[in-house]
Amino acid sequence: MNAAEQAYSIEFASKIAAVVSLFKSQISDLRADLKPWANDPETRDLIDPDSIDIGFHFPGMSRLFKCRSLLVQIRFHGDRSSRRAVGVEVAGFDHRGQQWRLSTIDDWRYEGSIVPEAAAGEQIRVCCRQVFEIFKTRAEPSE
């Protein structure tokens, strides 16, 4: 689900902002998109309500990351009062579509026809580890 739609409390909105800052601090030329999904019926049917989806876009094609855009999907378990991150998936896209994918739910390996350079790939893994730190405390529901 679009990150902008998941900011249901100040604490949770702050955590989403922390994730954006985290990725931008590791990969400085990214531009964040808190609404990466279109708001049409077909797309809405595919959206996971137990996730936060954030798009990041490079100013052009990144030769290190082998993509033009990143889609970061943080998956959660539990209701709003006890949500915990259980996985992070990051996918790299260019004009041809998805080129690679990394899932922390599996074995943290990159899969795809093209994968990021080793150092760039490690930057993404560092971000994923820190996402778990950001979401390890519970988010209180808004009153």
Topology:
Elements lengths: L2 H4 L3 H17 L4 E3 L7 H6 L4 E12 L4 E11 L6 E11 L2 E7 L6 E3 L5 H17 L9
Antiparallel strand pairs: 1-2, 2-3, 3-4, 4-5, 5-6
Helix pairs in contact: 2-4
Overview of the molecule:
- This protein is α+β, with helices and mostly antiparallel strands.
- The chain has one domain.
- Helices cover 31% and strands 33% of the residues.
- The chain has a six-stranded antiparallel beta sheet, with helices on one face.
- A hairpin with a 4-residue loop joins strand 2 and strand 3 (67-77).
- The model is unreliable at 138-143 (pLDDT under 50).
Our Rg estimate from Cα atoms comes to 15 Å
Give the low-pLDDT segments: 138-143
Biggest sheet overview: 6 strands, antiparallel
With helices defined by DSSP (H or I, 4 residues minimum), what is the helix count? 4
Beta fraction of the residues?
Answer: 25-35%
Total beta-strand segments: 6
What is the approximate shape? globular
Question: How are strands sequenced across the largest beta sheet?
Answer: 1-2-3-4-5-6
Helix content: 25-40%
How many angstroms separate the termini? 22 Å
Question: How many structural domains in the coordinates?
Answer: 1
Q: Strand pairing plus helix content: what structural class?
A: alpha+beta
Give, in order, the helices and strands.
HHEHEEEEEH
Please tell me the overall pLDDT: 85
